[in-house]
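For the sake of transparency, this paper describes our internal protein records without simplification. An entry from our holdings is shown next, in its original layout:
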Amino acid sequence: MSDIVVTKKHAVGRVPDPNRGKVTQEQIEAILEVAISGGTLTDMADAACISVKQLYYCRQSDPLLRSQVAEAQQEGIHHTVDRLVNIQEEFDDPQVMRVVSDNIKWRASKLMPKVYGDRIDLNVTQTLDIKTALDEAKSRAIETEVIRRAIENKDDQE
């Protein structure tokens, strides 16, 4: 009589979509092709003829798809950054080139900060035996004092 379903996961009045987290192999290939060329999630969803929300559900429900998309996105970022080498061939206006270049660099630095980020994190770990250093300093001080006294004694004898 009615399609009203009441469950914990779904709001009253909605029928759960059984295909919500499923995509075909052709759709997966379209998603990965767009991802590897540097496209956004919206571009990936459009290429697969699904909504962005459905793309999120698919990625959540399929760990293999999630890892494939993540790997393709990383390659896509590298691909997009490679465009910077020949960006002067794409645009004639220097202002447009600068803006596009800055956008590509910003996006890469946010999505892959370890590779394209501005921050340099340098950690140096070194252990130092302070007792040895103090002993060496003490022996140098003693040697200096001995030399100073020898010079004073020599001056006094003359």
About this structure: The radius of gyration is 33 Å. The domain at 25-116 is CATH 1.10.10.60 (Arc Repressor Mutant, subunit A). DSSP finds eight helices and no strands in the chain.
